[in-house]
């Protein structure tokens, strides 16, 4: 059975209706645009009238009569002024237009998606912040998150960036394990891949969570504004330290908060231990420390890994030796132990004679030992003593002798460190990604932030003595002889290197001017007795530890 076509009036009716609706909508939009000033003024007049009624209702009855009299007098004065009514009408229309303007709606709370995220976070905290016997728990399944959450903030992607929450007084906020469980839940529910800071207020039962920005990696090696005895280990958050130093970062200059390590006779943390993963930046840290130490002292480098990362220091002024082999390392460390004893003996004799210590005993000596575990394995295979045993004297008595020891090791070889190194290195640094338990084992205290899985080289945490754990970013100090080094960073390191011995400073090895402390007053001629002078052996390439006779 064939279908008959619809009548023309029925087939074209829907098109006519659609066109009519479109015309009506266009006319309405045009009329709205034309009448927009009138709509704005009308809206403003309604607001002004509502405000006048509210003001009249709030006026006491005994003051309404005088108020009407004053208003009538004002209207009479305006009526008799030249152009008074016209000016009053213009002022009224301007006030109505101002009051009737469209204003952006201020956001007063989270949107539905953010409220759902906060409710989910609230539900996840219920098992950790509630007890069954609590008659009025702050956290309960199906409860209201607005009663405990405040000061919340979100980023453009809808992820939480700041939150302050209240917890019940019976929560054991003094136990690290209880805190860690809550921090783990907040970290997981707020979004991984970011670093969070947890600020516990035990007195007020409040916990503040906020996302920390990434530390800048654009600060390269340079001459920092410090005094002798101060070393910039790296840079941290602005609220973590009280000192900033001017730096060149990228194409500009700025003041960056620095982690400054103080060494010398009055230091409470005279030696440093750095633990990291391969590629974490421990070698970069030692290079940065060496470049700063050469401005005021002498440096002895022991490269246990033998990768050649310190070849740029070989033969430079102030660099006593750069040893990579086992024999050279043992000889250099033995010399360092005897030199420490010599400095102590000479300084003691000078003090007993009433004179200041000689200048050669007051010039800082830095011993940088990278990967002692590798040297220890070689020494055990060769039947030689562990090089760490030779660090006993510099570590125990180095502070009085102006000898500073810096040891760098990796996490997988940290158990090879001897007890003396562990007990005498009270300045600690942990570099590279690691579990919170590993970082706490190195620093002696857990970090207040959540470590991220991926970190740039030189990124980690630092703790000086019993101070707080702070984030750290070591200045970019790569090997200038490495082909993968950028030209800017390579030039920055080369500018800091002192000239090579017996060679004039060239354009590629020019060093910044070194600040030399003024010499002491005339020193006495000290003679060591044969009974008190230790037996010292001169190591090739190192200065003799025996003082010159006057």
Blueprint of the fold:
Elements: H1 8-11, H2 13-34, H3 36-58, H4 64-80, H5 84-99, H6 112-125, E1 149-154, E2 160-166, H7 176-190, E3 196-201, E4 206-211, E5 230-235, E6 244-249, E7 252-262, E8 272-276, H8 282-293, E9 298-303, E10 319-323, H9 326-352, H10 359-362, E11 365-370, H11 372-382, H12 392-397, E12 403-410, H13 419-424, E13 427-431, H14 436-443, E14 459-464, E15 470-473, H15 487-496
Parallel strand pairs: 8-12, 8-13, 9-10, 9-11, 11-12
Antiparallel strand pairs: 1-2, 2-4, 3-4, 5-7, 6-7, 13-14, 14-15
Helix pairs in contact: 2-3, 3-5, 6-7
Detailed description of the structure:
The chain has 550 residues and is of the alpha/beta class. It folds into three domains: 36-53 and 82-99, no CATH class; 112-211, no CATH class; 230-495, P-loop containing nucleotide triphosphate hydrolases (Rossmann fold). The chain has helices at 8-11, 13-34, 36-58, 64-80, 84-99, 112-125, 176-190, 282-293, 326-352, 359-362, 372-382, 392-397, 419-424, 436-443, 487-496, and strands at residues 149-154, 160-166, 196-201, 206-211, 230-235, 244-249, 252-262, 272-276, 298-303, 319-323, 365-370, 403-410, 427-431, 459-464, 470-473. The strands form three sheets. Strands 10-9-11-12-8-13-14-15 form an eight-stranded mixed beta sheet, sandwiched between helices. β6 and β7 (252-262) form a beta hairpin. α2 crosses α3 (36-58), α3 (36-58) packs across α5 (84-99) and α6 packs antiparallel against α7 (176-190). It is elongated. The chain starts with 7 loop residues before the first helix and ends in a 54-residue tail after the last helix. 31% of the residues are buried. The model is unreliable at 505-540 and 544-550 (pLDDT under 50). The chain crosses the membrane at residues 68-98. Keywords: Membrane, Transmembrane, Transmembrane helix. InterPro entries: P-loop_NTPase.
